[in-house]
Design a protein that fits this description.
This protein is α/β, with parallel strands linked by helices. It has 7 helices and 11 strands. The strands form 2 sheets. A 7-stranded mixed β-sheet has the order 3-2-1-4-5-11-10, sandwiched between helices. The longest helix is centred in the middle third of the chain and has 14 residues, at 118-131. It starts with 7 loop residues before the first helix and ends with a strand.
Length: 243
């Protein structure tokens, strides 16, 4: 998508993100698992958004750093109760990261795929390795790609008497990329565009990328409650260890 960069998604979505994406039911399991993996060490979240995970982790007494490419997302995070002890960073997660060492770096809910080319994903793995302790862990939560047909789609996301939100997307299975816009029409107001773009990767591709950066796969679960991962799993939580 022309003109799209590391801040585009967050800047477009910040004002509606918490309303459009209420707290998932697995958040408590996620926080429990991450806190256990951190083991009291410093924690860095990549693509922290409005703080769904960073805030409860900080409330557990962990030293939490939250990084996001969007200043608007970070502003939303900092305005919330419980965010006062979190150190925030406005930066692209594919760029060199804040100085470590961190015992745990993690990226949740497909956010790693927001790095929209293979080279950026590989660079991010290297940057994570550079700021981790030995041993240290990098955790990636993402969907398992299905066989997808390339093409365009238009769907209705929301429809009220004075407002319509359309989801317009384009998928290219050859390049493993998808991009789109949420287009919001509200009576008497300007049209709002909220862009997004991803480059997905298979678990095998992620493992190979991680191995080049020096990681080994320690755990792979189907969900944050540590359900075993299997051929039918729609998503994965992958724990990479750096020794």
């Amino acid at each position: 998508m022309r003109g799209y960069d590391g801040s585009s998604y967050g800047d477009g979505m910040a004002e509606v993100y918490d309303d459009w994406y209420p707290t998932p039911t697995d958040t408590e399991d996620c926080v429990n698992t991450l806190a256990n993996l951190a083991g009291g060490t410093r924690v860095l979240e990549l693509g922290a958004g409005t703080g769904r995970l960073a805030i409860p982790l900080a409330q557990r007494g962990l030293e939490v750093h939250a990084l996001d490419g969007s200043a608007r997302m970070i502003e939303r995070l900092r305005a919330k109760s419980g965010a006062d002890t979190i150190t925030t960073h406005v930066s692209d997660m594919g760029a060199p990261l804040p100085p470590g060492p961190f015992g745990l770096v993690f990226v949740a809910v497909n956010t790693f795929f927001g790095l929209i080319d293979e080279g950026a994903q590989a660079a991010a793995m290297r940057h994570v390795a550079a700021v981790l302790t030995r041993p240290g862990r990098f955790v990636v939560e993402a969907f398992v790609p299905e066989a997808q047909l390339s093409g365009d789609r238009v769907d209705v996301r929301d429809l009220t008497a004075d407002r319509v939100v359309l989801s317009v997307s384009r998928t290219d299975a050859t390049t493993q990329r998808a991009s789109g816009q949420f287009i919001e029409f509200r009576d008497g107001e300007p049209v709002r565009l909220r862009p997004w773009a991803i480059r997905w990767a298979t678990t095998e591709q992620l493992d190979a990328c991680a191995a080049v950066a020096g990681f080994t796969l320690e755990h792979r679960w189907a969900s944050w409650d540590r359900t075993p991962f299997g051929p039918e799993s729609a998503g994965h939580v992958s724990v990479y260890r750096l020794d």
